[in-house]
Amino acid sequence: MNGEQEKIRNTIREGKAILGIELGSTRIKAVLIGADHTPVASGNHVWENRLENGIWTYPLESVWEGVQDAYRKMAEDVRSRYGEEIGALGGIGISAMMHGYMVFDKKGKLLVPFRTWRNTITKEASDKLTELFRYPVPQRWSIAHLYQAILNKEPHVQEVDYLVTLEGYVHWKLTGKKVLGIGDIAGMFPVDVHAKDIDQHKVEQFDELVEKENLPWKLRDILPKALVAGENAGVLTQEGAGLLDPGGNLKAGVPMCPPEGDAGTGMTATNSVGVRTGNVSAGTSVFAMVVLEDKLKKVHPEIDLVTTPAGDMVGMVHCNNCTSDLNAWVGIFKEFAQSAGVEMDDDQLFSLLYTKALDGESDGGGLLAYNYLSGEHITHVEEGRPLFVRKPDSRFNLANFMRAHLFAALATLKIGLDILFKGENVKLDVLSGHGGLFKTKVVGQKMMAAAAGVPVSVMETAGQGGAWGIALLAAYMLEKEDGETLDSYLRERVFAGQKGVLLEPDAADVEGFNQFMEKYLCGLAIERAAVEALR
C-alpha cells in the first residue's frame, strides 16, 4: 500500500471520510470522499421507474433495496482497496431526483404511490397556480401534484401529514428530521431568496385558494423546513444506521447536511453556484441551470425559478427526455453487432456511434427525430411517442442519423435556453457539462455548445455526478469557516487546479442546429398527431 492509500485508509479508520448518496433516474450511487475531497470508493445500484396505472413511479421497497445495495458495494470497495470496515463516518449527504409527490399520513404511511418528476398529469393545477402566484409552477413540482389531487377530489388529501421529495423522505427516515435543502424546496414550492425560505405570501395565497375544501391542514404544516447549504440537518439515528447498513457495522451519530436535489448537487459538482455560471446535466432527462444576476422580466412557463444550495436564484430549463431514445437506438446497433458475431462493450459502442456524428452534415442531413418517451411541458406534448422521420430526399446515412438523434436529445432544452439568452438577455460565461451525454469526449460537448451558443466546459470530475456533489455539500457543512460562502469554498478548496476541456461553439454547428430546429418546431405537429393516433 503506497503513501496515498495509507492516508486514505487512516481517514476511513478514523471515521473522517464523507459519504454522498444520490438516487438518480436509473442508478443509485454511493460515493465516499477523503480529506482532499476526491472520491476514494463507490458503489452503484441500477433501478428503473415503472409505469403503473398511468403513473411513473418507484416502489418504496426498491428505494431501500437500492440504497442498501449501493452502500454495501461501496463498503466492499473500501474493504478490497484499503482493508478497512466502515464503522464511523465524518458526514453524510442524501440527494435524489427533484420534484414529484410523496405524501404520508400521521403514522408515516405512504398514501399513494410515489409520483415522480416524469409525470405530466398536473397541467390544470400548474396553469392555475402559475396564474395565481405570477410565478412559474411546472407540472412536476410537488405543489402542482398536491393541488391537482385536490382538484381531482382524491380522498387521500384529507389524510396528508407530510409532503416531501424522494431525497427528503430518505433523509427523514435516516435522521427523523423533516427538513430539506433550499434548492430542493424550490422544486416543491416558490421560495423567497431574501428570506432563504418558502415564500410565505404564496403559502397564504394557496391556503386561501383551497379554503373551501375544508382540509384539516395548512400548507406550512405539511412541508419540510427549508435549510441552506452549511446548516446542520440532524444526525444519523440508530434506526437510520440500520437502514443504510443492515449488517450493523455503521455507527449512529453521523452529522448530515441538508438533502438536496440533483439540480443542486449538479451545480455543486461542476463548480457552478456563482453568478454567470451554469451547468447542464444530460442523461435520462436534461436540465440546464443558470445562476442569475437579476430577476427575469417576464414569467415564462418554460423556465423554472429555483435556487442554488446556498439560496441564490437560478433559471432552470428542465426537459423530461434526453438520452433514453438515443440509448435504445444504440441498443439496436449492439444487437446487430452481436448477431454479426462482433462483441463490443457499451463504452466502445457509444464512442464509435457518437463520434460518427461528427462526420454528419451540420443540420443532420434533413433527418428529424423526437426522443419523447414521456411528455414534455415545454413543447406542450402530453405523452411520449419516440419518432424518426425523413423525407425521400433526406441524406439518410449513419453519420446524419446519429447527429440528428444527438440534436434531438438537446432540442427541447434549446427552446428554453433561447428564452433565457435571447428573450431575457441572460449572460453566461461558461456552461459546465456533466452526465452520460458527455462521457464520449468532445461529441456531446460540441453538440451542447451548438445548441446553447456558449462555451461548454467538461471537467475531469464530470463523471462523478451528484453523489459526489452532495458529499461536497456535507464537507462544506463540516469544514466551512465563518463567512465562507459555498462559492468560495468550491473555487478555492475543491476545484483549485482542476483541469477541464473548454469548447467554443463552432459557427457551422450553430447554424446547422438552427436549421434542424426550424424543421423540429414545424414537425411537432407530427409528434402530437402520433400521440393521438397511437393509443
Automatic annotation (TrEMBL):
Belongs to the FGGY kinase family. Pfam families: FGGY_C (PF02782), FGGY_N (PF00370). Keywords: Kinase, Transferase. Residues 18-244 form the Carbohydrate kinase FGGY N-terminal domain. SUPFAM superfamilies: Actin-like ATPase domain. It comes from Anaerotalea alkaliphila. The keyword Cell membrane does not apply. The keyword Transferase applies. Residues 279-477 form the Carbohydrate kinase FGGY C-terminal domain. The lineage of its organism: Bacteria, Bacillati, Bacillota, Clostridia, Eubacteriales. It comes from the Bacteria. GO terms for molecular function: kinase activity. This is FGGY-family carbohydrate kinase. GO terms for biological process: carbohydrate metabolic process.
